Structure to design on (329 residues):
């Protein structure tokens, strides 16, 4: 098992399929985009499946979440999902996506064994979307969400990041939109992971602010805290339930003590934390002919040294050199 020195066990693997994205959300990357990882450096579909198989069959991983960059841009996605969901013991396979392309892909992905999706949606206003993501794609995202729901990829979860002065007045509207359609909304505090290093604590909309805004229009009661387990979201029943809304206070209410995640980047590096400054290079080892035992040993060693917390509050905190899009959110 992927156990660290504090006794936490990583069972939830986030795999980035590409660092490329068709949006330019300003909390993630600059409008002109980034220098993408060189193609030969990216894991091939077979390499991804080999490592995921190792994680599921030998290292106790029970959930595999494909992400990026934008995972729908990876041409072999449906094949990768199909091969992952046919592993035994069968992992839960999910996807974090901006939704652009789900109209075409939701049904084939569901058929390939995908269990559900998290779709990012920060605003319902087309102009605000364009200002925030530097692309006029809001209708595609909304259509993608509807397609995921129609394909049975439920519960459809929606991730929203609120930014001060841009979309922070939309908390209520976003929740209403999701409630009306049966989507589960989660607000995520903005984290210092943007390529431009533009994050500031003062500009971050905190979990407390989000909850205060929602409470002006909804009655929120804490859902059974025993249910939370290692899930990052604090869940609240909306107007008595059963509908729920989540708030992920990654910065102000960190949940590192119950973290069960480990990450594999698109270029084959294991990261034991979003904020890790070290990585373990499985790609080079694999391409140099490492056996499954050797790869498993490297992976175990990488997780063993996971730090107690992300350390954003430490005076010595250093933002990781890779931005979110290159790590896999
Ligand atoms: N492209 C996909 C998407 O849009 O969901 C997957 C990758 S994206 C990096 C994954 C999630 O990370 C999205 O919900 C996005 O809003 C979130 N994200 C990106 N940068 C962030 C930041 N600095 N702080 C908090 N969340 C962030």
């Amino acid at each position: 098992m992927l156990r660290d020195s504090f006794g936490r066990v990583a069972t939830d693997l986030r795999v980035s399929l590409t660092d490329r994205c068709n949006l330019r959300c300003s909390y993630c990357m600059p409008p002109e985009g980034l220098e993408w990882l060189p193609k030969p450096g990216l894991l091939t579909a077979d390499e991804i499946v080999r490592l995921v198989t190792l994680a599921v069959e030998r290292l106790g991983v029970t959930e595999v979440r494909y992400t990026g960059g934008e995972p729908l841009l990876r041409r072999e996605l449906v094949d990768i999902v199909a091969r992952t969901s046919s592993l035994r013991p069968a992992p839960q396979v999910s996807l974090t996506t901006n939704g652009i392309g789900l109209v075409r892909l939701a049904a084939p992905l569901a058929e390939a064994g995908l269990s559900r999706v998290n779709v990012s949606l920060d605003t319902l206003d087309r102009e605000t979307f364009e200002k925030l993501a530097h692309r006029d794609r809001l209708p595609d995202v909304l259509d993608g969400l509807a397609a995921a729901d129609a394909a049975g990829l439920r519960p459809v979860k929606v991730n929203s990041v609120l930014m001060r002065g841009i979309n922070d007045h939309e908390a209520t509207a976003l929740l209403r939109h999701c409630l009306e359609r049966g989507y589960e909304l989660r607000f995520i505090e903005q984290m210092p992971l943007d390529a431009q290093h533009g994050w500031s604590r003062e500009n971050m909309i905190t979990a407390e602010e989000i909850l205060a805004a929602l409470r002006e229009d909804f009655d929120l009661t804490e859902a059974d805290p025993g249910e939370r387990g290692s899930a990052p979201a604090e869940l609240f029943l909306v107007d008595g339930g059963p509908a729920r809304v989540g708030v992920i206070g990654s910065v102000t209410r960190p949940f590192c003590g119950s973290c069960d995640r480990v990450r594999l980047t698109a270029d084959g590096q294991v990261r034991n934390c979003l904020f890790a400054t070290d990585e373990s290079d499985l790609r080079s080892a694999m391409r140099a002919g490492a056996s499954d035992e050797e790869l498993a040993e490297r992976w175990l060693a990488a997780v063993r040294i996971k730090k107690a917390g992300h350390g954003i509050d430490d005076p010595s905190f250093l933002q990781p050199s890779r931005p979110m899009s290159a790590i896999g959110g």
Notes: The pocket of S-adenosylmethionine is lined by residues 21, 27-28, 67-68, 70, 96-98, 120, 159, 161, 188, 190-191, 193-194, 324-325, 329 (CB under 6 Å).
